[in-house]
Amino acid sequence: MRDYIDAAAFKEMILCADAALHANIQVINDLNVFPVPDGDTGTNMGLTINNAAAELRKRSFDSVAAAADCVAGAMLRGARGNSGVILSLLFRGIARRLKGTETAGAEEFAGAMNDGVEAAYKAVMKPAEGTILTVSRLAAAAAVKAAKNGADLENVLAEAISAGNEALENTVNQNPVLKKAGVIDAGGKGYMVILSAVLASLRGEIASGKPVSVRELKEDSVFVEGKVDVPEINIFDTVYVVRKKSPDVDLEPLRRYLGSIGDSLVISDDDEIFKVHVHTDIPGSALSESQKYGALDIAKIENMRLQALDQLAGQKARSTDDLEQVDAELSAMEAGGAPSDEDEGVAEPEKDFGVVAVCAGKGMEDLFRELGADRVVTGGQTMNPSTDDILKAVNRTPASTVFVFPNNKNIIMAAEQCVPLTEKRVIVMPTKTVPQGISAMLNFSPDETEESLVGAMGEAVGNVHTAMVTYAARDSDFDGHSIHAGEYLALLDGALIGSYADTAVLFEELAKAVDEFRPEFITVYYGEDVREDDAETAAGSLRASFPDAEVSVVNGGQPVYYYMISVE
Prior knowledge:
The protein is α+β, with helices and mostly antiparallel strands. It has 21 helices and 18 strands.
């Protein structure tokens, strides 16, 4: 039994939690309610905690407070999606409670868990029950109660896990959307995976970088249905840049391949190059496969296990820094500008107002720039940018006040975390779709006052209804609809209209749903997988249904969605 944790123990806990979460990403993602391809809760939480694990591996700490502060800061900047932001807030509260603490016992850690919950609840405008918030709150309450009754740290965590798992199972009854789908909350599941790994680490049942047999785990430490093993962490941190064969090369097959041989995968690109970050045991295979898509430019491969041993021995961890400049240049390109030394740091204000927009697809990016956006962050559905991605774009905008258009409901919270992290004034316009962001940009007049701009753009956003056409990622029975993988899905303002095998039928039903708005303007943005003549056919169907409306067709080039349709 351990009475307290020190910095080394806390660090090991988080590294084990990172490994456990990555082992369960698909389990968590499969809990997603809607059958559409989306931001994936498991992926977002995994990338968020992995940012903390990466920082922890670089450093050693003399107190649990220092280790917790490192984790909180890394998670804040690396937070992706609403689930990732909430996870970062939970750990931010923990760090605040442990400030100035060299070691933490049962009462300190239970109190820290409770402070984490309070921090998360305060940051969420409308906290909903049956979510990660509920699970973490009831787990923390059980921890505090056990600590007050004299339980040691191990039993405090065991009580928290017991209460958390009970709360998780009940989320299906608390959240109407989960109840319709018959599943538990994905974010809550991710949190319990983390908490269970923390306890298993404290007990010495698992260790970072070490494979663990199920037989070695006690019953209340098992954190996956079916008692799945925690795999050995892929040891090679592999980063490289490839110059594309052509600007429109499809990287999706490469993404699937790299995902099958590693984890912590991130691929970013522009018209000329793409950069890969992946943890894998076979970096040579990753490089060989990637060369099918272009010419290898530069690469960095580091053994994370040897780096950890260096740090434990009190030595400087071996490393290569060859890609630092390329990384900075690519970040600048992703933010919407050409690489230059001037892109580093915080840009001096040259004007009162600037704009940062988040979107995916060359046509969409070009449109936002034409409308006056200073920076464009590549991201959206299935590819939520981190808080740090957005923050860099904000800092590089040469304005004293920067408006941010997240253009996706799962990116709004990550954007809001930028507010206290920069000297610039940041105003996040809560745009939930790209068409809403475009409408806001059309009403952006830099000569107006801040109050007038917020009012005009907010009104414009409120007048936009957004229809989406995508595909079913899996078979599902949702809200009375029998959905089959691969069918076309039509959504209007986030609500499912139906699932169709024929796009002609889909647009007929979509027109019926849109009719109540009496549209005057309809803009059809077609995606990267849609031919222009097919887009014109779709627009023709809408023109026939709404002869008095002005219907336009724009090549958005967006992934995931065949069509984004703005209705005003």
